[in-house]
Amino acid sequence: MLDSTAIRMQAAPGRGLYESFYFRGTGADGKHAFWLKHNMLRHKGSRDVRLEGALVLFDRNANKTSAVYSCEVIDAQRFERMSHQAIDWEHVALQLHNGSSVQIGRNYLSGHITGEGGSARWDLQVQRSGMKLMPFPHESMYRLPWPSNKLLTCDCHVDFHGSLWAGELAFSGRFHGMNGHNWGTGHPHCYAYANCAQFRGRDSAYFDGFSAQVPLAGGLVVTPRLSVGALHARGQWHIFNSLRRVAGHPVRRLDDYGWQVELSNDSHRLEVDVDGASPQELPWVALNYEHPDRHRSPIKSTKFASLKLRLLRRNGEVEDELFSDACELETLLPANRPATEGYVGVP
Fold it and tell me: Is 55 within 8 Å of 36 (Cβ atoms)?
């Protein structure tokens, strides 16, 4: 059984690798959202590990985001000592030299960071559902070199209660969202990724999916757009990840602020329409991700995209329709270049 919370950096000493263990939540009133990221990065050819923390807050009414990012580089010996104290991503307590601190437990998240964007603090009680999602069709794909980036949803439905403060924004109350875990030797060449845990009138529904082009032969060529998705509705999973179909799913739209795809399996089709409008209409953030090979790519994200899902049986009969205004949409386009030297970019 694949361990969704294992710290992958510990098992890959000396390799170029990135890892992210993150949480996102949206308030029940749909006005506020947060994105809490715990990252690690080791460059190719280096044994040092860069510990990164970021908190991004989204205010829908004011169409505003505030992001704080902190980073500390530690050598291999210190990372090994710290690794003995962290059993996995659900048992982390770090106090860093730059004054930042991070605690991750089964039932709480807390921390304080200072760096780019000012200061941030969070203190959240956590209630987990235990519902996991492994998007790749075979567990071996998480152990083999390809694909170079791995992703898991550790928990599809997480309830948060507490307070968050980052830069100029501060929220408190109850939030609902998810817990994700990504790692790999490099990010995809291009992708759109969406997840949603809050649908109108459908508290238990969940959607997760992506379309991506993945590098091959050390980045000399890339795959066609490979599309995968999963929908949990009315107590049943609908999985669209067959390897013989992923390259054939029609991608109708993939740009900075939107994604449309049609997924299919042996019994159903799923029409996915994610629209993030624009940064003039919704709060977006751009973060400059660094790859293990030291290249940097801006990713753009909002937590307030609209989502329309239409589930059809193979005979064309509509089985279900779902709607949300609290969908996370994240995009990376290879033509985009970082506009700043910092972690926080321009959406």
Answer: yes
Q: Is the dihedral of CA 177, 92, 168, 285 positive or negative?
A: negative
- Residue listed under structure tokens 């770090």: 94
* Angstrom distance (rounded) from CA 42 to CA 49: 5
Do 326 and 306 contact (CB within 8 A), yes or no?
Answer: no
Instruction: Encode 35-52: b = buried (16+ Cβ within 10 Å), e = exposed.
Output: bbbbbbbbbeebeebbbb
Beta strands at 296-313 and 268-275: parallel, antiparallel or unpaired: antiparallel
The DSSP code for 141 is G
Q: Mind giving me the DSSP string for 213-241?
A: E-EEGGGTEE---EEEEEEEETTEEEEE-
Phi-psi region of 235 (alpha: psi -120 to 50; beta: other; left: phi over 0): left
196 — pLDDT class (breaks 50, 70, 90): very high
Asked if 347 and 64 touch (Cβ cutoff 8 Å), the reply is no
Q: Write the pLDDT tens digit of every residue in 21-62.
A: 999 999 988 999 999 999 999 999 999 999 999 999 999 999
For residue 165, what is the enclosing H or E element? strand 149-166
